[in-house]
Specification:
The protein has helices spanning about 60-85, 105-110, 110-130, 145-155, 165, 175-190, and strands at about 10-15, 20-25, 30-40, 90-95, 135-140. It has about 190 residues and is α/β, with parallel strands linked by helices. The protein has a single domain (about 1-190), classed as Ribonuclease H-like superfamily/Ribonuclease H (Nucleotidyltransferase, domain 5, 2-Layer Sandwich), CATH 3.30.420.10. Strands 3-2-1-4-5 form a 5-stranded mixed beta sheet. The chain starts with 8 loop residues before the first strand and ends with a helix. About 40% of the residues are buried.
């Protein structure tokens, strides 16, 4: 089934605080790359809004978040450079962004927002970096993406686990979600 599909090369991303699992799917739905990408300098906090900013005066907290964001943007640019040099990527699939207050100070002050703002910062910068290259950005619900991809593409329930047989470990839940997200994005883009 996978060999019969065509479509763009899509990088599926399952991000975490400071790093991401990246699974790139080429035409035919074949995994052409799998990597773990560092997204922030190790000397900087990976979740500054939810943790470190809470103990700082608001101006220092905002400055810290901006410093972390600059680091993330640099790591994202390097990731996209590496991936683009190796594969003809034209799109990325990212976890959906939560709804947050526009102002960073409000994100820091609101417990509801601060628990979601750090992941949103990573995803926003990943999306901006991809869009800046002219790549399409597809958003996915990480809780449903595996079911949505297998249903939309008519795949068997074990399909997202299948690449592990060829690639070996690791092939974690993050890899499965990133793979499913890339397949689903590839499907949507091929139909557009």
């Amino acid at each position: 089934m996978a060999g019969k599909r065509t479509g763009p090369t899509v990088a599926g991303i399952a991000d975490h605080y400071g790093w991401a699992a990246v699974v790139t799917v080429g035409p035919g739905g074949v995994v052409v790359d799998r990597r773990r990408a560092q997204l922030v300098d190790p000397a900087l906090p990976a979740s500054p809004i939810h943790h470190e900013a809470q103990a700082l005066p608001i101006d220092q907290a905002i400055a810290l978040v901006h410093e972390v964001a600059r680091s993330i943007a640099g790591h994202v640019a390097a990731l996209w450079d590496e991936l683009a040099a190796e594969h003809p990527v034209t799109a990325v699939a990212l976890k959906q962004l939560p709804v947050l207050p526009e102002e960073l100070a409000d994100q820091i002050r609101s417990y509801h927002a601060q628990t979601r703002a750090d992941p949103a910062m990573y995803r926003r910068l990943l999306a901006e970096g991809a869009s800046g290259r002219g790549w399409a950005v597809e958003w996915y619900d990480h809780r449903r993406v595996v079911d949505e991809a297998t249903a939309a593409l008519g795949l068997g329930p074990g399909h997202v686990e299948a690449p592990r047989a060829r690639l070996g470990a690791p092939w974690t839940a993050d890899h499965r979600r990133a793979y499913a997200a890339a397949l689903l994005a590839q499907h949507h883009l091929a139909r557009a």
